[in-house]
Amino acid sequence: MASIREIKRRIKSVKNIAQVTRAMQMVAASRMRRAQEQALASRPYANKAWELLTHLAEVPSTHPLLTPRGSVQNVAIILITADKGLAGAYNSNMIRHTIRFMRENNRESAKLITIGRKGRDLMVRYGRTVIAEFSDLPARPSSLDIAPISRVAIEGFLQGDFDEVYLAYTRFINTLQQEPTMRLLLPIQPGSTEGKVMSRHMTQEKTMAGIEYLYEPSRDTLFDTILPRFSEVQIYQAVLEALASEHSARMVAMRNATNNANDLNNELTLTYNKLRQDAITKEMLDIAGGAEALAQA
After folding, report:
1. Nearest to residue 47, comparing CAs of 213, 241, 180, 212?
2. Degrees to nearest 5, angle at CA 16 with 6 and 10
3. Residue 128: which of 111, 140, 114 has the closest Cα?
4. What domains sit in the chain, N to C, each tagged with a CATH number?
5. Choosing a second label site near 283 at 20 to 30 A (CA), which of 66, 79, 100, 265?
6. Cα separation of 297 and 295, whole Å?
7. Which long-range contacts (CB under 8 A, 24 or more apart) does 275-280 make?
């Protein structure tokens, strides 16, 4: 059994850890609220953008961003994880989901565009090909921060380096629930795919793609500008969803760590008091025995 001094040292260490995890919990809670507000506020815009895109693409078009490749050989995956750990199973769940997708869909040779150091480091460790990595995004990213990411994906697709581009991110549901999500980003597949994508990854509301729109200039002229912009919006929304999920997972993980540290501190304190009481009792018995020996002498 550990000595009283060792237990006292452990109690001090556990208290220090509890203070750190409590502070991290408060910071994560503050960031989580801002990230949730930003993610939820941008959802209607992303939904309306996708609705407009599906309506534009109802008429067959030969635009390269809308045209599926006959033979899919090269695949790229935009993987969104965190730069830091201490977020529970947030990073590992997303990485496992991505690797499972690659294995089950014969995409073992997929090239990765990683957002976040955790995904980059683990994928490199697993021997996967990382062609671009982005990290240290601002706490409140803007479309300008996302533009380089979308440019790599869109230019690679247009140049024929990729036949398909997938978006892997953690969809924010609520503070206690986040869902690893994988969806096709390029080529854009509107029409029948719209309902599935919107219901699974954006919102449960029905869209209004059947409404008649008037466009000026012509629909074909708009494609060159609108399609890359819409793809960028989908990446931007995925980053916001991932940030909200990350801070929520970190807050819950730090809260659990704080509670566990407090429980361990209580157990150690109880053990410390028992050992201290035993030591006092032994000392009293020694004193009483010495006094009795002196009296007999």
Report:
1. 241
2. 10
3. 111
4. 23-251 (3.40.1380.10)
5. 265
6. 5
7. 275/1, 275/3, 275/4, 275/7, 276/4, 279/4
The residues facing 174 across adjacent strands are 177
Between CA 145 and CA 138 the distance in angstroms is 8
Distances (CA, A) of 202 to 1, 103, 113, 142: 56, 26, 22, 19
Cβ distance 76 to 153 under 8 Å? yes
Give the Cα separation of 142 and 136 in Å (integer): 13
pLDDT in tens, 194-236: 444 444 444 444 444 455 667 677 767 777 778 888 888 889 9
Cβ 247 vs Cβ 176: under 8 Å = no
Q: What is the pLDDT of residues 60-95, one digit of tens each?
A: 667 788 778 888 888 999 999 999 888 888 999 999
- 132-169 per-position pLDDT tens digit: 999 888 888 888 889 899 999 999 998 888 989 999 99
Q: What is the mean pLDDT of the chain?
A: 82
**Residue indicated by tokens 């035993």:** 278
- pLDDT of amino acid 193: 42
pTM of the model: 0.80
Q: What is the pLDDT of residue 190?
A: 62
CB atoms within 10 A of CB 3: 10
> CA dihedral in degrees (198, 203, 205, 211; nearest 10)?
-50
Share of the chain above pLDDT 90, in %: 28
- Pair 18, 261: CB distance under 8 Å: yes
